[in-house]
Amino acid sequence: MSRMCNTHTRPETGFRRMTGMGPPPNRRWLKPFIQLLRQGVSPEKIALTISLGIILGVTPVLGSTTLLCTLAAVVLRLNLPAIQLVNGVVYPLQFILLIPFYRLGAWMFRADASTISLGGVTALIREGVGHAVRTLWVVTMHALFAWLVLGIVALATLYAVLVPLVRQLWRRVQPSGSSLYGR
After folding, report:
1. What pTM does this model have?
2. Is residue 57 over pLDDT 90?
3. Residue 172 in contact with residue 178, Cβ under 8 Å?
């Protein structure tokens, strides 16, 4: 019955509902996602979310970024879908930066970097899986240290650059009657 009433009050909406023709599909699923992304955020939190998503997303430990981003979002009360979106976008960078982080870590700890290549890893595995795991564990810990040192500087820099940009964008997209921070 409500469909019929709706058809009489707004014929174009009723027609679209009856025929299955509604707004384009991308708007139907995009609007709730955008609303979720905007819930309880400020320009500073958006900038922090993006910065942390990028830095945590390139951690030189494969399979760790989703957990790290989730923990950061929960602890810092950041927007979880947004940080995971950024994490997903920078995912290819994690692979691109993996060997450079391994090499930087080896350089920082004055360790042998000869095993830090696809061929080197293959040779390690041929020597024995246990030996390979122990060696790669050390290499990964060195890479994590290098990532941490660079990550702190990169996080501060990204955040400092993004805050004014996000504030400017925020002012453009906010309705004229609302406050800057959505409070």
Report:
1. 0.69
2. yes
3. no
